[in-house]
Known about the structure:
By secondary structure, this protein is an alpha+beta fold. It has a single domain (about 5-110), classed as Alpha-Beta Plaits (2-Layer Sandwich), CATH 3.30.70.120. The chain is built from three helices and five strands. Strands 1, 2, 3, 4 and 5 form a five-stranded antiparallel sheet that branches.
Amino acid sequence: MRAVTTLLVLTNLPDRPSAEALARELVEARLAACVNILAACRSVYRWQGEIETADEVPLLIKTSGERYAALETAIRDRHPYQLPEVIALPVSAGLADYLAWVASSCRPDELPDAAR
């Protein structure tokens, strides 16, 4: 049996309602085991040659490596930004039972055929 890779995926949304909607959709679709919606933050970034600032709501998304491609597609399809931040970090260590829960929560074989 091969080990399942666990990923921590970061993204930001422009407001809390859109962050909550995306988080719920990702968990319902089994693309994420859990999504933490953090407190709003202020982002400073360069966009199209200009320095911009924005208030954003960060999300911490726990998923399996097997579900990453589908998760990325779902974020891109539902995200209001032209170019959303989507950064996946591998989890190199963690509580074994928690990592197993992430893997099982994201398993597409747990879905009914119509939802795959």
